[in-house]
Design a protein that fits this description.
The chain is an alpha+beta fold. The protein has 13 helices and seven strands.
Amino acid sequence: MDVLLPSGIVAALMINLMVSGYLVAIYFYHEREQAFLSWALACGCFVVGSLILLVQYWLAMSLSIPGYMLLVFSSCLLLRGVVQLFQDDNTRMWGAGYMPVFALTALILAMAPVAGISTGGVASLMMALFFVLTERALARQQDSFIVVVVLLRVLMFVHALIMTVQGLSYLLTFETASALSGVGQWSLFSHLLLTVATALTLPMMHAIREKQEWHKRANTDVLTATLTRRGFFDLAAQKLALHGAEPCTFLMIDIDHFKPINDQYGHATGDLVLQQVAQRIQAGVRKDDLLGRLGGEEFGVLMTETTEQEANVIANRLLGQISASEFMGETQQISVTVSIGAMTQVSSKHDLEHLLRQADKALYQAKERGRNMLKFADKTA
């Protein structure tokens, strides 16, 4: 950017300035989410840095180093915003990981004129580096925001490619007027457009993240950290639809004599028992099995691609682990057992409600026969 295009670029800078104000407004609206402030400052630094370089070109003043430093710092702030969004502003990691890179960049920029190296070329390559780091930070969130993250990663890759080509063109071309022709002209204008597009897309990612977080909270039982009844049934219906042609098993798990535990030791101890039972069930089932608190002291587990024989092994292991464990109450250890009713179906011809009813009947039979046992529903049910 040794020479900036006066027409069009000024308009693009004004758009960046408006985007910066827009992000500041979102920052105050969204309970001061630090990522928005970093992105707003990124746009602001880019505008100020570009204006400094414009002034240098128009007034023939030597302001290239502070101008380019601000441009590099804008890409650094873009990366910081992504880190803040996903890691809750881990400033220690930021200070130890990325700030030394920027400090080294500032040193290189300051020494570039002395070494006879194009300051614009060094700045462009360092900006490309920060865009690559941002793309890598986004890649770690690919599973959470598939569409938006793919779009952002593409934007970051294009940013990095543009800055790399521009940086090499500056380093290999010693005439400053080259910025007005070919790749220099195209790369500068495209970079500004991509900056605006990125700034507008990042709030979309935050909105999706926030929606997912609220959805997770709404479907998570506060006490046991398992799924709520509604959340469990929603996800269970999806899993059954995906695995309809395969056998699946539903476990209904109930804590034995839970009311006497509450009466004798108090509700605080009862809550601790619920939490610890949920933890033991979660640890005892497989990663892909679905666990939810269906109400009171009852838990449900849906195991897809699971035959009765396989479910029998898992359920009996749960019974043994829970009955052999000591549960911590408020002031003492207590013994706890559970009863399990189970239902296996070979296909999806029965809905989830049918599985629940049959497993509940089998649970009732296990209670009738003495508790602390597993009972499968009749296959003819």
